[in-house]
Amino acid sequence: MKNKTILLIVIALTTIIGGAMSQGTVEDYKRAYSMYHKYSGKTFYSGVSPHWIGDTHKFWYTRNTPDGTIYVIVDADKKERQELFNHQQLATALSEKCRKNVNPANLDLSQLTTTDSADTLYFQFSGRRWMYDKQHNALTDRGEIYRRQGRQRHWMERDDEMEAAPVTSPDGKYTAYIKEHNIYVKELSTGKERQLSIDGTIANYYSAYIRWSPDSRKVASCKIRPTEKRYVYYVESSPGDRLQPKLHKQEYAKPGDELPFKLPCIYHVEDGRAIIPSSELFAQQYEIRPPRWDSDSRTLTFEYNQRGHQVYRVLELSAENGAVRPIIEETSDKYVNYSRYFRHDLRDGKHIIWMSERDNWNHLYMYDRTTGSPTHQITKGEWYVRDILRVDEEERMIYFSANGVKKNEDPYHIRYYRIGFDGKGFTDLTPAKGMHTATFSRDMKYLVDVYSTVTEAPEAVLRNNDGKKVMELETADISRLLAEGWKAPEVFTAKGRDGKSDMWGLIVRPSNFDPEKKYPIIEYIYQGPGSHYVPKKFTPYDWNMTSIAELGFIVVMVDGMGTSFRSREFENICYRNLQDAGLPDHIAWIKAAAKKYPYMDIERVGIYGCSAGGQESTTAVLHYPDFYKAAYSACGCHDNRMDKIWWNEQWLGYPVGEQYKKSSNVENAHLLRRPLMLVVGEMDDNVDPASTMQLANALIKAGKDFELVVIPGARHTMGESFGEHKRYDFFVRHLLGVEPPKWDEIK
Predict the structure, then answer these.
(1) 3-state DSSP assignment of residue 174
(2) What DSSP letter does each residue of 257-277 carry, written as one string?
(3) Which of 11, 397, 533, 578 has the most neighbouring CB atoms within 10 Å?
(4) CB neighbours of 173 closer than 8 A, spacing ≥ 6?
(5) Which of 151-160, 329-338, 605-614 has the least mean pLDDT?
(6) Taking a C-beta distance cutoff of 8 angstroms, is the pair 211, 293 a contact?
(7) What pLDDT, in 10s, does the model give residues 212-258?
(8) 126 is in which domain, residue-wise?
(9) Same domain for 553 and 584
(10) Are residues 510 and 472 part of one domain?
């Protein structure tokens, strides 16, 4: 009996080892690296991107056919499509002018525009600008492409509003400008200059963004009290133009930093009278949006986002007495989602259309300016308004996109709708199943609807503004993609931590999938407020998931609680709690998938991600080591006190307190007991690279073993090609239990 037991153990171990050895091989690596080229360029009649021509009902787009690219024009009224121009004639003309062979099936005409009649084309090609008269087959060289020189402001840099061109009054009689930190006006007919403000200084100056009242009698500007700026420094170790390293400096405000204070002020031009309001209703500023004059020139409005984001106000300022009153106020015990912003002031001067999450879903409200209260809710229901495309005041109609309206499909799928100001006439303009992108004619009479799902290839149709199909445009041909062995990911849903909310995700299997094998699971994570992240459109190759699966893994991705576009309650899980990272929902979802598919090995789960995903993947192995057995973390914001002010203060709140320490991987580094690879680009201008280095320091001090990979010259990155290979090897070694092949064998 004892010998029989030993024999069974040996057989079992042999089976496990044999199964493991068939994954993570040289052949698997070569196949993984070949997938992008194998699947690219195998989908035709897709990628329709329409360009409506002026005020007409005509548009052009490019058809990607097996024989090349064809530019076509469609007349929506006539339901006709034809080539936009004679491709052979234009290619011949370009060949002669450029003195090189131009293939008519591969014309790349960038920045293409046409006249309304589409008889003349304007475009860029081969570094030059061109005009093409189709009727006369006349190609004119309009000169070399002008490229703006000089340094562009980095997205982290604050606009100090100190420089701007003089602003001419609506009646054309004056210009207003800043001189020595104060507001001046000049009478254009005489050249006479007059100083309006006298209290501007270098430490409390007037914004150069001056706004004239419609009656040309007043100017408005914000008086700004600046603060000292924080900078992040980078050492570029291996610059391309010299041997010695370079030191770089970048403005970078972080949570808790002091911010500028703005005071909207009004000056009467004729008598110089100053209207300086009390700041009582906007004293704790995160941001003041620029003031807008009302059409009667008697008042202006500006918006106040309170530090901590629990109060957001639209304020009205009287140009006569300086009185300030709120006309819209949003409050929350967590945060007002100010990035879900839409405001439209109706021309009657009495009403505002406003977007709000106040009923737990993102919807539109009609506000009465006089009372400062909504008259009615325009859209309502357990779904989410996304973007407003047009407010048509003549027809009293709103065109917008939304997700979650249809209860029998993926709640993240976007469709397009119209609705009356009164909340009636709600019409689905894109009724087909899928994730939609709609592009409307200027008068909103027609739209081109392009839609797909992860598993269903794109279709493009022309519709009218009732959503009825006018004309079929394209249906993607994926026959060559299928011939390469491509298989769609599986859309999988399972309940989250609460046992009732559906979590939506994807399961990606290797192309040589064998249900008789056991596959470790790797989760790709990018989770957090601000959006949802699981792909919803047809994508033959996913950079983050397709190739790594070929090494012998099941790769998954899921949106858990704390992500956006479901409900405010669903997202607010993240408030003062980024450490949560939706991981309880992810774990529940993965366990449900593994229960359905026994070939998914729930005992071997790895996780990786970049940026927020870099933070979250490390969080996973620190706080859930019994479930997640290895993590690869690239460019993570491992301590939110080190990251961007605007991202972190919205979700973690202000002032900076214990909630920041709770979410910090650095503070929790001592918990590590699973394999961890940290990756960082030395020039990361998104997340301060010091965040990764401080985590590494904390791990060293805690006596923890880990791997650190620094990519010279790289910015915000998953690891580039070097890091990708390191990631492959890391999971092959720690989840498959196989020593990866040597790199030169794979090449």
Answers:
(1) strand
(2) ----EEEEEEEETTT--EE--
(3) 578
(4) 187, 188, 189, 216
(5) 151-160
(6) yes
(7) 999 999 999 999 999 999 999 999 999 999 999 999 999 999 999 99
(8) 51-144
(9) yes
(10) no
Given 476, 496, 521, the domain boundary residue is: 476
- What does the pLDDT read at residue 151? 73
d(CA 314, CA 575): 24
Give the span between the Cα atoms of 676 and 65, in whole angstroms.
46
Question: What average pLDDT does the structure give for the chain?
Answer: 95
In a domain, 470, yes or no: yes
Tokens of 554: 């099941």
The sign of the torsion formed by the CA atoms of 492, 496, 501, 504 equals negative
Residue 250 near residue 234, CB atoms below 8 Å: yes
Distance CA 722, CA 733 (A): 17
Asked if residue 446 and residue 324 are part of one domain, the reply reads: no
Cis peptide before 655 (omega within 30 of 0): yes
Q: Note every long-range contact of 403-411, with CB atoms under 8 Å and residues 24 or more positions apart, other chains counting.
A: 403/565, 404/565, 404/566, 405/381, 409/433, 410/435, 410/453, 410/491, 410/504, 410/536, 411/383, 411/502, 411/504, 411/565, 411/566
Task: Write the burial class of residue 479 (CB in 10 Å: 0-12 exposed, 13-18 middle, 19+ buried).
Answer: exposed
Provide the number of structural domains found in the chain: 4
3 state SS for 481-549? HHHCCCCCCEEEEEECCCCCCEEEEEEECCCCCCCCCCEEEEEECCCCCCCCCCCCCCCCCCCCCHHHH
Same domain, yes or no: 447 and 413: yes
The residue assigned the tokens 């290797």 is 510
Final residue of a structural domain among 110, 144, 178: 144
The residue among 539, 432, 527, 526 whose CA lies nearest residue 491 is: 539
Answer whether residue 711 is part of any domain.
Answer: yes
Q: Is the dihedral of CA 260, 266, 267, 273 positive or negative?
A: negative
In a domain, 45, yes or no: no
Q: Is residue 44 part of a domain?
A: no
Token code pair at residue 384? 């989410």
Q: What is the CA radius of gyration of the chain?
A: 30
* Same domain (yes/no): 679, 646: yes
The 10 Å Cβ neighbour count of residue 572 is 21
Nearest to 268 by CA among 199, 192, 176, 181: 176
Q: Give me the DSSP letters along 560-581.
A: -BTBSSS-HHHHGGGTT-TTST
